[in-house]
Amino acid sequence: MPKLTVESYGTFEVPQGKRLVLATEQNAGVDILHACGGNARCTTCRVEFLAGEPGQMTQAEKGRLAERGLTGVRLACQIVVDHDMTIRAISRLEGSGRADAGGPPAEEITPPPVWLTVAG
Predict the structure, then answer these.
(1) Helices (H) and strands (E) in the chain — how many of each?
(2) Model-level pTM greater than 0.70?
């Protein structure tokens, strides 16, 4: 099983292929935001990779990050945990002023992923 390390939270074993947003919330116990329900629309599930950043991203993630002018971050709702990763959870419920983290993300990436290679 891959290991997910979340800065200030610890290291957790995660089932192969689980969405990062779900692993961060369910396995690591982090109150990560996912206001749009994990559909690559809101960017509230932003994370920063400290190690193990995936070499691909969905077309939806790339488009949303570009629209918002965001660099150096990724959308946890558009990433699957298929290898060891170390992240910093940037957008958390605590201190956000929101009533809740957002609707529950589905088990599978939505919208259906079109995978792109990340330049690096």
Answers:
(1) 2, 9
(2) yes
The one-character DSSP state at 35 is: T
pLDDT in tens, 59-99: 999 999 999 999 999 999 999 999 999 999 999 999 999 99
CATH 3.10.20.30 fits 3-95+110-117, yes or no: yes
Provide the residue type at 11 as one letter. Answer: T
b/e for 39-59, b at 16 or more Cβ within 10 A?
bbebbbbbbebeeebbeebbe
Task: List Cβ neighbours of 89 (8 Å cut-off, separation of 6 or more).
Answer: 6, 7, 9, 24, 30, 32, 47
Q: Which residue type, as a one-letter code, is found at position 103?
A: G
The string of pLDDT tens digits covering residues 22-68 is 999 999 999 999 999 999 999 999 999 999 999 999 999 999 999 99
Residue 111's identity, in one-letter code, is P
Residue 11 and residue 99: Cα distance in Å, rounded?
28
